[in-house]
Amino acid sequence: MLEKLALKDVGPAPQLAFDFAPRLNLLTGDNGLGKTFILDVAWWALTRSWPDAPAMPQRGASVAPTIAFEFSGKSGPIEYTSTYDFPSQSWTRKGGRPANPGMVLYARIDGSFSVWDPARNYWKQAPSLGVDAPDRPIAYQFAPQDVWNGLEPQGKIYCNGLIRDWATWQGRNGEAFHQLLLALKTLSPSSSEPLVPGELTRISIEDVRDMPTLKAPYGQEVAVIHASAGVKRIISLAYLLVWTWQEHVQASRLLNQDTTNQIIFLIDEIEAHLHPRWQRTILRSILEVMAALTGQDVGVQLLTVTHSPLLLASVEPLFDEKIDALWNLDIVGQQVELRREAWRRRGDANAWLTSDVFDLAEPRSLEAEQAIQHAEALMSRKDVQRDEFLRVQLQLRGSLPDVDPFWLRWGFWAQESGFEK
Questions:
Q1: What is the average per-residue pLDDT within 283-294?
Q2: What pTM does this model have?
Q3: What sequence ranges are listed for the domain ATPase AAA-type core (predicted)?
């Protein structure tokens, strides 16, 4: 598992340091403060490849950019500090065969995925035959269209893609399809809205592929490429999880070695495109589906970015401070600061919205928040004039519903102050 990550003179702050929890790590903070950047660097630390452009360091006469990390590898704990070499415009890497961090997955916000499989991406090593070389793909980098249509760089077929694999698996009705059914069921928003495959179909005379479908709640079968953005993200996630594990098992069998005993999963904005009902279950579902697919004692570590107060409320029953952590990136003055939040149950999404994690003054519209602030300022004074009272009351009437609990406070104060009988 990824245990530590420390950045100096790279990223949004002069220094950032994480001591990651072994199971669940939730990253929160405002837009633009570096949450996705942290996931990118974590991926690089584990796999020695960048999902996109490399991290660019800060510049100046006194800067000495470093990325230090620690993780538990197959052969024991791994520690390394990479420095940035300005002449070559690259981060230094430890020479020789890299450490094996187990399986690493990265689901990005734009629908792209990255996969590092210790059975398929690790260096070949056979000392008796003089083989010790990095001649395997450094990682599988899926653009959004590759997830659906296949990954075939330089004519090599690494992955058939969701459309062809799903159709093949469904036709064979074997283990892979049963695992896909399990993943779809587990990742469904609720038992009353299950993700269930329909019959294969054709969508065009110009496309000869058998197209998978999903049974819609309104009785029709919808081709997967016509599904909503939220459904597409979840079924592509289900497919990649099944494909990655199936191929890992096959490759491990060919290599006559055991399957991995740990998986690290990075997810950017886990709640993206999802209805609140789905946001409330998705995190638990991902932890459950990983355990269900592997079918054995495989450790799973999750690093995920979220902007959802409902997701944080939903995770309260399963959050364990011994193995889970909540991280927050915040602006203090003109500098980004990282803190590990002390965990406490807040009860509902509104309470999370007004916590230090999201920093909202009120879980209401901006107009309602401003009206309440004006009202509270008025209630704290002694010399309030009637025209001031009427002006603020008009603001409240224009932004709060009749059943808002603030009206009780306002009405009591108005009576005590003699503005209402």
A1: 93
A2: 0.91
A3: 24-313
